[in-house]
Amino acid sequence: MNDENEIRPGEVVIPWRASEDASIAFIGRIQTPWKTRAECPRQGQMDGPLCQISLDEIWREALTGISRCPRLEVIYWLHLSRRDLVLQCARQDKVPRGAFSLRSPLRPNPIGTSLVKLEAVHDCTLMVRGLDCIDGTPLLDIKPDRKALPSSAETSDERFLR
Ligand code: SAM
Fold first, then answer.
1. What is the pLDDT at residue 19?
2. What is the whole-number distance in angstroms between the Cα of residue 133 and the centre of ligand 1?
3. Which ligand 1 atom sits closest to the C-alpha of 112?
4. How many domains, the chain?
């Protein structure tokens, strides 16, 4: 069986433990069709399969107005990632590259972001297309796509500009 945490020739791991200098709270979970990392696409596609974002009930009010946002930026915690790999070799790549020059899930703070198409909203559940994470991935945040925000010349609506 393929070990998804294997170190490949040329890769470099550093002795490092994340310090607890930020308090990140998971606000929900993401349900996708993919049960393993190997099954996930490298990057989500807007015409990809329907995925479900389930927010914890306490965040219900924070979803007010979201149905007016056709595109969302979803931010999630790639919880199965190792966090100490500074030089990495993509499977097809012989030359190691630094973690910060890649969109690899293996990074000191394994934050993933995807731009998604919002298909439906039911209570605290969003149905979206465009994700690339494994089923059960913790949710960190949701923001409207910045490209869809009105410019300050077009609106003085503070709700959009905060
Ligand atoms: N779109 C995000 C980005 O660019 O920030 C993530 C891209 S990353 C290349 C996507 C890959 O992360 C998937 O193909 C899968 O191999 C891996 N992955 C998905 N969910 C994960 C999870 N919960 N923990 C660790 N790795 C995950």
1. 81
2. 5
3. 5
4. 1
Q: Would you state the pLDDT for residue 152?
A: 61
Burial of 129 by CB count in 10 Å (0-12 exposed, 13-18 middle, 19+ buried)?
A: middle
What CATH number has the domain bearing residue 45? 2.40.30.70
pLDDT at 18: 82
Q: Is residue 143 part of a domain?
A: yes
Whether 126 is in a domain gets the answer yes
Domain-embedded: residue 13: no
Q: What is the pTM of this model?
A: 0.90
Tokens (6 digits) for 33: 């069709």
Among 37, 93, 103, the mutation site with the greatest number of ligand 1 atoms within 8 A of its Cβ is: 37
- Report the atom number in ligand 1 closest to the C-alpha of 79: 24
Whether 70 is in a domain gets the answer yes
- For 78, the domain range is 25-147
Q: What is the dihedral of CA 6, 32, 42, 24, to 10 degrees?
A: -70
Positive or negative, the CA dihedral 100, 106, 111, 112 is: positive
pLDDT averaged per 10 residues in sequence order, the chain, 162 residues: 79 88 93 98 98 98 96 98 94 89 96 98 98 98 90 57 52
Under the phi-then-psi rule, with left for phi > 0, alpha for psi from -120 to 50, and beta for the rest, what region is 10?
A: left
